[in-house]
Amino acid sequence: MSISFRLDGKVALVTGASRGLGAGIAEALKEAGAIVVGTSRDPESANRVAKRLQSLPVVMDVTDIPSVRAGVDRTASEFGRLDILVNNAGVNIPQGVFDVDEQSWDSVMDTNLKGAFFAAQAAARHMVDCGESGRIINIASQAGVVGIEERSAYGASKGGMVALTRVLAIELAQHQITVNAVAPTFVATELTRSTLEDPTWRQRVLSRIPLGNVGEVEDVAAATVYLASSAAALVTGHTLLVDGGWTAW
Ligand SMILES: NC(=O)c1ccc[n+]([C@@H]2O[C@H](COP(=O)([O-])OP(=O)(O)OC[C@H]3O[C@@H](n4cnc5c(N)ncnc54)[C@H](OP(=O)(O)O)[C@@H]3O)[C@@H](O)[C@H]2O)c1
Fold first, then answer.
1. Is 71 in the pocket of ligand 1 (CB under 6 A)?
2. In terms of Cα–Cα distance, which of 146, 143, 140 is closest to 162?
3. What's the domain range around 184?
4. Active-site hit among 117, 118, 154, 186
5. Radius of gyration, CA atoms only, the chain
6. Does the beta carbon of 187 sit less than 6 angstroms from any atom of ligand 1?
7. Residue 154 annotated as catalytic
8. 31-73, pLDDT tens digit by residue?
9. Which of 21, 115, 231, 236 has its CA 20 to 30 A from that of 194?
10. What's the pTM value of the predicted model, to 2 decimals?
11. What is the CATH number of the domain that holds 40?
């Protein structure tokens, strides 16, 4: 039997790789053998990411669709191919239902959902040209599967990502491109700092995770490497919950 999680010879693009989950995912894909390009909105930060990954600096704001297309195209033309896209860039603006304003709603939806779709569209064009199997992995959230307070826009965007994952999986299957999502529970990053530093919220979070702890960046990176690898060749349209059992209740 030959099962491999190696990604040697593959070219991967990770959106939002300057910190948190994106930085960890990019590092894990590189450790698995891939050439990895990681993006940031900030040119200096993009340079730091490129240095860390020994690849190309790509400045990309996923709410700016021309910049998404340019970053995807530049990666594919620099390395002659694109095999793996990880749609990781994301934001959350926690707000109660009566506090949600239109600007916050649009910002969350444009970043988490619209940006991911157009990155997938741009990447899939190169994967089709390449004529080999491609991988699109969307970093969704358990908040796209179950309701979590103060996350109307965030939950809607991540639920949209779960639905989008299924549609893209069906449409792109004919090109041997698999499309899956990873849906983590709370992981300590910049995004969740204020929530997890609030003792009431932290207790609320921990009480809902049967395994008793929040996630680590490695938990999400491992799931992503699996879905990117040939070991997951027959898995598509799936949302892999990495949630310590939150959604198993
Ligand atoms: N942490 C968690 O508990 C958790 C749980 C479930 C799902 N997730 C998801 O995992 C992903 C990463 O979250 P994280 O916790 O690592 O967050 P983070 O530490 O805040 O990092 C967010 C990343 O996204 C990038 N980003 C934000 N807005 C962007 C935009 N408009 N265009 C391009 N890049 C943008 C940032 O890059 P620059 O600022 O450098 O541009 C940064 O690298 C998100 O999609 C999030 O929803 C996180």
1. no
2. 140
3. 11-188+216-239
4. 154
5. 17
6. yes
7. yes
8. 999 999 999 999 999 999 999 999 999 999 999 999 999 999 9
9. 115
10. 0.98
11. 3.40.50.720
